Amino acid sequence: MSIQSRYATILDRIANAAKAAGRSPKEITLVAVSKTWPAGTVLEAYAAGMRHFGENRVEELAPKRAEVEAALGPGNGITWHLIGPLQSRKTRLAAEHADIFHALDRLKIARRLSQHLEEANRPSLPVFIEVNISGEATKTGFDLTRWETDAAQLQAFTTTLATIRALPRIEVSGLMTMAPWDAPPADIQHIFHRTRELARRLDLPLLSMGMTDDFELAIAEGATHVRIGRAIFGERATG
Ligand SMILES: *Cc1c(COP(=O)(O)O)cnc(C)c1O
C-alpha cells in the first residue's frame, strides 16, 4: 500500500472516531510520525497532503527539516513537532528547530528552552506537558499516577505548572500522555479519560494522545493531536 492510500485510510478512521464521539474531525490534528524515515519519505507524505510531522529525536528533526526545506522552500506550511523527551544538552537545538514540543517532562528543560528561545530571538514555543498517568507505559512524564486521590501529588504538579507558565517564551498548550502498549482497550481508554479529566481540571485545552494502536480510543476521550507513525509509513526498521 502507498503512503497516500494509508493516509486516506487514517483520515477516514479519524473522521469516524470523531463522529462516534460527537466531535468534528477538524478538532483533530494528525501528526505524521516520520522518525527513522528519510526526508524523501516526508516529501512523499507532503505530496499526499500531510503538513504536520513528528520526530522523537531533535538531532534527527533538525537535519531532516533542513533537507525538506531545501526541497520545498521555507514557506512550505509544515509544522515540525518534537514528540520525544529532551535531554538538557539538546535544548538549544530544540529551541532552534522545533515548532511544537510534546514531551516537556521537567522544569529544568522548560527553563533552558525559554532561555535559548530568548537568546535566539525566537517566538514562544507551544508545549505539551507529558504526564505519566498509568505508571507503566513510560518512565518519562510528571508523576500523576494518583492525581485524583493524592492531593499532594496534584499540588506539586500545579505549582510546577505555574512556574512553567510564568516563563517568558514557553506557552503551555496542553497535556501529552502515552498509554501502556499491551493493556486491554478498556484500560487504555481509562488512561486517556483520566488524562482528559486532569487537563479539564487544569484548564488546558489540548491533548496529545493516541498512536497507531490506540488513536481511536484517544479520540473518544478528546485527543486533539494524534501522533501516528506505523499506520502511515509502515513498520520501522529501528526506533
Ligand atoms: C514513535 C512515536 C509515536 C508513533 O508511534 P506509532 O506506533 O508508529 O504510531 C508516537 N508518539 C511518540 C512519542 C513516539 O515516539
Describe this entry's structure for a reader:
The mean pLDDT is 96. Helix 4 (91-97) packs across helix 5. Helices cover 44% and strands 18% of the residues. Strand 1, helix 2 and strand 2 (52-55) form a beta-alpha-beta unit. The protein has helices at residues 3-20, 39-47, 58-72, 91-97, 107-119, 151-165, 185-201, 215-220, 230-233; strands at residues 29-33, 52-55, 79-82, 100-104, 125-132, 142-143, 170-176, 206-208, 225-228. The protein is globular and about 50 Å long. The protein is an alpha/beta fold and 239 residues long. It is built from 9 helices and 9 strands. Strands 1, 2, 3, 4, 5, 6, 7, 8 and 9 form a 9-stranded parallel sheet that branches. Pyridoxal-5'-phosphate is lined by residues 33, 35, 56, 83-84, 211-212, 227-230.
The main sheet comes to: 9 strands, parallel
**What ligands does this structure carry?**
pyridoxal-5'-phosphate
Shape: globular
The poorly predicted ranges are none
The secondary structure category is: alpha/beta
